[in-house]
Here is the input.
Amino acid sequence: MRITAINGSPRQNGNTSKLLEAVLEPLAKSGWETEIIQLGGKKIAGCKACGQCQAHKNRKCVFANDVFNEVFEKMAAADAILIGSPTYFADITAETKALIDRAGMVAMANDCMFAGKIGVAVSAVRRAGSLRSIDSINHLYLISQMIIPGSTYWNMGYGLEEGAVSSDAEALENMNQLGQAIDWLAKAAANAPAPYPVRKEGEN
Here is the structure.
């Protein structure tokens, strides 16, 4: 099984990255193929609502002059998608939001490509606002008919300076539990009957 983790922070080795690594650690031990993609700080534009993904249905965005299609291809190939963002003014980074909007549109335009996948959100925060960040990411998963596992607490870690989240023992333990929950859920789903009917684009 494969999990694609996406770091929406411009800090490649900052607090968000450390939270993602903590989630992936038990999965790697369980045999998962893991990868962290650095999104923050890279060129990615927001959705232009042009409708071309519905017109072409080729699992791509027509605007190919940034990193979106490369990242989306890895999301589509994964059994689980893990998106992390620091908390900027009580929400996610601009790069993370751009990815969510375009990924959601392309996936829905192509027969709900994410349906049945596992979706997980984590957020690094100095003090407050991370629940909204997590909620913003979860909106992609919920509208895409994905499955969201729970853990022992909200999926956040506290820290301002780079690497400070490493001192948040409760957060790191929660991330470990979250990784175990992803592993359990994926194995349970693999042994389940045929998936529920997926609503296709344009159906009521």
